Task: structure prediction
Amino acid sequence: MLVLSRKSGEKILIGSDIKVTVIRIGPTSVRIGIEAPGNLNIVREELCLEDGAVVCAAEATEENHRPGYPR
Result:
């Protein structure tokens, strides 16, 4: 695992088409933004760990994305 230190507003690039931005750092949480191609499935890990979760093994469905949010 690669561990990087970033300040609010700084970015991490993954390849040439994925950009992770630190949006806000709070006392107990960090808010990040992810810019990636629409064909990538980006889900929170806890959704993959639920019993019977198939979203991580299969392709993303419309219900796994926020309404109005571009894929």
The radius of gyration is 14 Å. The longest strand covers residues 18-25. Helices lie at 45-49.
